[in-house]
Specification:
The protein is an alpha/beta fold and 284 residues long. It is built from eleven helices and ten strands.
Amino acid sequence: MRTVGIEVDPSNEAQARAWDGDEGGYWAANADWFEGGLAAYRAPLLASAAIRAGESVLDLGCGTGPTTRDAARAAAPGQAVGIDLSSQMIAEAGRRAGAEGLANTRFVQGDAQIHPFPEAAFDVIISRTAASFFGDPVAALANAGRALKPGGRLVLMTWQAPPANEWLVEWSTALTGGRGLPAPPPGAPSPFALADRARLRDVVAAAGYVGVGIDPLAEPFVAGRNPDEAFRSIVGLVSWMSEGLSDEERARAHDALRASLEAHASPAGVVYRSGMWVATARRP
């Protein structure tokens, strides 16, 4: 099926419209905030991937490319290729790589479930949080896996369940007026679609990988340099959480969010606890 100018699997049509639309545009326009929030996870991802000079790396769901750029530096003179559904984030990724003088990067707009990756072209596949948004994560990882050389390595990071992610619990409690968010349908694309450790292991194994390991990782999530910056960015991103509230209720919700941000303010920024799973595996 063709949508937003690229071929996508029908299961990814809604994701493509979002990420190549307003949502992706917001991420591209606020790339510094998004990249800063997850900065603590960059070094652990790179360490788990153990990228060596001269290797080729594929970054699934690369967004604005922070992990692609890290991979490019580690792989030089090898290359790093990032793929994402969002044309706006891909454009920003290319701009940032160019500004850093990383000539060994390339960014492609595409759907990892059906994109015609070259056979056995990469030594390593990495992905930070993106796998949870695939309509069919098994299909995406299997399709990308064919681009791995035999023995090639896979490293995924996916969010753990909400109780391990203080930022989501506090933001959603505040912005919904204390109701909290309903759980999405099982298996539906969402930030927490692969939050269950057993399901994550099953998905990676079903995609044809071997030697699957799933390890927990806890790092700080930085919501902004100060509460005012954090408030503006969060409300701009998740204003939908307050849909259905009256003006008075929304004002109270915003006050509750500000109180949470103030409580987490520190010299390092507005810091919340967060946790991910690190899945490692290899192509047979």
